[in-house]
Amino acid sequence: MSLYNLRNPAVKRLMREADELKYPTEEYFAQPLEDNLFEWHFTLRGPPNTEFEGGIYHGRITLPPDYPMKPPSIILLTPNGRFETNKKVCLSISGHHPESWRPSWSIRTALLAIIGFLPTHGNGAIGSLDYTPEERKKLALRSQDWKCQECGYIRGCLKSPGVEKSENCDIQNNDMKFLSEPISNSSSVENVSPDDEYSGRGSDSENSSSTSSTDFAKNIPGNSIEIVTSNEDSAVVLRQRNFDSNECIVESMQPSTSPVQSVRAKSVQNNCSLIVIWVISLILVLLIIRRWFSFDYTV
Question: Keywords for this entry (predicted)?
Answer without folding.
Answer: Membrane, Transmembrane, Transmembrane helix
